Amino acid sequence: MKITSRFTVAVHTLLAVYVLGKEYKMTSDFIASSVNVNPVVIRRTLSSLKAAGMIEVKAGSGGATPIKDADDITLYDVYTTVDCVEGNLFNFHENPNPECPVGKNIHAVLDSHLADAQTALENELKSVTLADLMKRLNILM
Amino acid sequence: MKITSRFTVAVHTLLAVYVLGKEYKMTSDFIASSVNVNPVVIRRTLSSLKAAGMIEVKAGSGGATPIKDADDITLYDVYTTVDCVEGNLFNFHENPNPECPVGKNIHAVLDSHLADAQTALENELKSVTLADLMKRLNILM
DNA sequence: TTTGTTGTAATGTCAACGGTTACATTATAT
DNA sequence: ATATAATGTAACCGTTGACATTACAACAAA
């Protein structure tokens, strides 16, 4: 079970818009050929990123441009924007038997630890900004 | 996208075997009625836990019993045992375009951060043992 | 040899993902 | 105004993985 590639696609898309946007018109076709997916997938991604206020997309004339400061966009923001996980990361079996001492208390015993694990992951994602990625990318390019 | 409930089912199963095993014969039917899933699901779970050396399962006569010390079983051990995630937690889009400066470097820029997030989650799971859960459960029961 | 149980294969259902086609809508240039 | 090039979206498909369930062979003990 893996976290959907919508996430890495969205990060790739943002990097393209923020870094290459000065030089090229960032159409869904352009980005799609960089990411190597169908342009419609990119349009869906752009639509989410736009709804989150990160970018602007021009209908008709075409092209996506940055709106939000790259320092104010974390990987966690992107992660939530493209709905990688809704609510709990861990799927819990439903309806454990309340007649059984284990079934009755399994949530009380386990929930907080699962939440801690999820929080640890999310905090790591919060610690990285798009600006961080851009700095590293500019060195490599 | 969520992590399969096989994980919480396996933890529930282990707690049942370790805590209730002294008092009852822990058959797949018994555990299944506590977890509230089909007995075959529990047999598959028991099979994995047995392969990991945590428990013993008696074919024919029936019943599962603890083998490994509860202090030596972490949530992470269970997590890997039931194959919640194989390899990377994050799905990466395949074949980003190497002709594009972003596509060429996206892995170099992103991989380490994704790995860090995954490690943070796994470390949290490593910090909790079955014995910890049993202590808490014994207080509640 | 009967009974209760495990081990496992096979099948079905369902949801999510990603790919793709199609087309209405929109902006711009000529 | 019209042609052109893009976006926005709905619709549909194929694949995959999860989980449930049925079926039955293998097995151990009374």
What would your notes on this structure say?
The structure is a homodimer of 141-residue chains. Chain A is mostly helical. Chain A has a domain at 6-88 and 129-140: Orthogonal Bundle (Arc Repressor Mutant, subunit A). Chain A has helices at residues 6-20, 28-35, 39-51, 75-81, 101-126, 130-140; strands at 55-57, 64-66. A two-stranded antiparallel ribbon of chain A has the order 1-2. In chain A, strand 1 (55-57) and strand 2 form a beta hairpin. In chain A, helix 1 packs across helix 3 (39-51), helix 1 (6-20) packs across helix 6 and helix 4 packs across helix 5 (101-126). The first copy, chain A, starts with 5 loop residues before the first helix and ends with a helix. At the A-B interface, helix 1, helix 2, helix 5 and helix 6 of A face helix 1, helix 2, helix 5 and helix 6 of B. The structure holds a DNA duplex (30 and 30 nucleotides).
